[in-house]
DNA sequence: GCAATTTAGTAATATAAGTCACATAGAAAA
DNA sequence: TTTTCTATGTGACTTATATTACTAAATTGC
């Protein structure tokens, strides 16, 4: 990818040397919405920087039960890939393209070189660790301290913001998977929200009231 | 603290320049076992490196409910303090001295200088992020995917290893706090373990069978 | 020693969530 | 159109955990 395009896609990266290096050594990969990018056990060969679209990061347990952790948005990378790469350990998480997504893959050894070479890369990595840590805490708070109804409402808000819409096109089963519960539980809780007139349910779609976020915070 | 003492306490740090800097700018703080070092909302003025003893890191919710995350042992530091310091945000966690503990406090601005100045400091910070991230995943797995009985058994193993003993001197209430549940639940589950002859219960003490860890993994 | 406090045991009950079973509705395929 | 498949709705039931209420034992302070 050309330096000029990268400068445009990654406005936080301004160091010309770093942009040149990214352009030279980074590989473009494209994933269609829903495509599984990495699964637990797989070895990661590069640090992925999201250029377009977004990636959903999930934790899985041994029985295949899943738990949504956070989204990676344009300009961001995954702390776990940094971790896994450095330790050359297999992936601890599942990554799925949430939309059609374009990433720039940085080879591991370049990542290590650049932390010494470019202050901006070092700061980028440090910033990544910081923000992912925060998001892990949010995910932890949810499972440790919140009931499923509240977790579901927060999930809806997160997805709404991510897709910039108040129509979610998804199934109850998929929500259940990402919250690590069963479909019946989600169907019931959604029905309760519908009874309160906060959402409307259709097949494969949930219509959400514009003031949903204010409603749930009270 | 003298460079020679630090070299002895922190065998992973070998760079003479870094050791000298740590000796010059680091401040020694001592905490008695049980002393609360940081609470949520408090601002952190330094990066703490454990020299002796250990520190217990807990997450708290708004109602004061707690959840044990991990221990910091000699030679380790807290990723969250790195995060909070850099972002100058208040602490997200509670830190309590698990034993009588000695820490070396590194001023924030020195931390930032040293990441550029000393490769070994940069690696130390990076390593810290990596290992804390792993431990966050372990904590997350527990609350997301495990039942309380299994969490309790793992908790017992963690404490045993930490204190290098098979006598835990603690109360049911304290265990309940750290696992984010109620005292009655812990009393009942401990009683079940006693019935299986895996532990013996006394007042303020739990005696654990030597082969406890093998027993629970089957 | 005796009263007060802390710690532990436990039964009864309540609640959130998970599971099972089955009905139905809409969409897609034949 | 009819069949098939997928998604949803819902009652009945189970289970794990939380809460309430109380007792008793051990320890501490007087």
UniProtKB/TrEMBL annotation, chains A, B:
Keywords annotated in UniProt: DNA-binding, Transcription, Transcription regulation
Entry keyword annotation includes Repeat: no
PROSITE patterns referenced in this protein's UniProt entry, alphabetically: HTH_CRP_2
Keyword Oxidoreductase attributed: no
Signal peptide, first to last residue: none
Superkingdom of the organism of origin: Bacteria
Ranges for domain HTH crp-type: 146-212
Any one GO molecular-function label of the UniProt entry: DNA-binding transcription factor activity
GO cellular component assignments: cytosol
Protein name: Transcriptional regulator, Crp/Fnr family
Lineage of source species: Bacteria, Pseudomonadati, Bacteroidota, Cytophagia, Cytophagales
